[in-house]
Amino acid sequence: MTFNDVEFKACPRCGVEPKMEDVRERSLTKPNVVSVKCPACGMSNSIAWGSMDLPPFRQAVAMLADSWNSR
What strands, in cross-sheet order, belong to the sheet with 19-23? Predict the structure, then answer.
């Protein structure tokens, strides 16, 4: 599956294509979060992005893909 030009492999646990979720908060205290989750077995991973000390969206998606694909 490709999300934002970044390739995510099938779930390492069960082989099903993962689903993405991008939650954008309009808050100074809550970060934005992008998540990848397997709809079959529930395995998931997420990363916060966009706040002062957090990476920008593109970098966060790339970091999330690296983490998901290396499992």
Answer: 19-23, 32-37, 44-49
